[in-house]
Specification:
By secondary structure, this protein is α/β, with parallel strands linked by helices. It is built from 9 helices and 14 strands. 35% of the residues lie in helices and 22% in strands. It has an 8-stranded mixed β-sheet, with helices on both faces.
Length: 263
């Protein structure tokens, strides 16, 4: 298959567990790009946190951020597509989290706001190359908000999910990692965003290769002509994939590209 677009999740897929881009993976991605294939990072991260990874690859272009809630041009900073969440709907979730002292942030396409940070939370943002902006509770939610991201130990988030099972949800809560839950518009998924971009580029899904590792990657893995799950993926993610490769700590992205694109 001659692929025209490759969608790559970042954390747990493109990067290893130390948040590093290995030389082999970087070389493979750049080599694919040099063949004329469009490389699209598709991540739960915000735009400003994803841009340094794109720069480390030595690439420019379009990125899908916030689990598909926004699609932006990395050069012009133009928002090509986004799904905003209303302040009224977000209020219920924020109240729940504030009452329990659980950290959350509020995201627009480009900015990330917090009401406060612990040292542990600040370190998490540093690792993800994110730059939080302090916003007082009295200022309310930012305009054009596309996502609220919750950060807490795994067991606390497991408990949150269990409490939310019986809720009548008008927003979706997506587990984007062991320590993260993202709250966003019901139509915000990486799969939907990838489909929007493919229509814009006039690229049939059969010519799209997608690689991911977590529940928020299922939509794009299922949409792509060939969807790949990393070996470090949960079983539910692997079940949706056409192929399971080795883990992100074993250069899985490079191996897939070498076999399916560069050979």
């Amino acid at each position: 298959m001659n692929y025209r677009l490759i969608a790559l999740d970042i954390d747990g897929t493109l990067l290893n567990d130390d948040h590093e881009l290995t030389p082999r993976v970087r070389h493979a991605v750049r080599a694919a790009s040099e063949q004329g294939i469009e490389i699209v990072l598709a991540t739960g991260r915000g735009t400003t946190s994803a841009l340094p990874v794109l720069a480390e690859l030595g690439l420019k272009g379009t990125i899908i951020t916030h689990n598909g809630a926004s699609v932006v041009n990395s050069q012009t900073y133009e928002v090509l597509y986004d799904t905003q969440i209303s302040h009224e709907l977000a209020h219920r979730y924020a109240t729940f989290l504030r009452e329990r002292g659980i950290h959350f942030d509020m995201n627009t396409a480009f900015d990330l706001y917090v009401e406060g940070m612990s040292e542990e939370t600040a370190e998490m943002y540093r690792k993800l190359l994110a730059r939080p902006i302090i916003r007082e509770k009295e200022q309310g939610f930012p305009d054009r908000m596309v996502k609220m991201s919750i950060y807490a130990p795994k067991q606390i988030l497991d408990d949150v999910e269990n409490e939310w099972v019986d809720w009548q949800h008008e927003l979706q809560a997506v587990r984007s990692g062991d320590f993260f839950i993202d709250v966003q518009h019901l139509h915000a998924t990486k799969g939907k965003a990838l489909e929007k971009l493919a229509l814009l580029r006039e690229i049939p899904r059969e010519q799209i290769l997608a690689l991911g590792n977590y529940y928020n990657d299922i939509g794009m893995i299922a949409y792509a002509g060939w969807g790949v799950a990393m070996d470090n993926s949960p079983l539910e993610v692997k079940a949706e994939a056409d192929e399971v490769t080795v883990s992100n700590n074993e250069n899985g992205v490079a191996i897939v590209l070498e076999q399916r694109v560069l050979s």
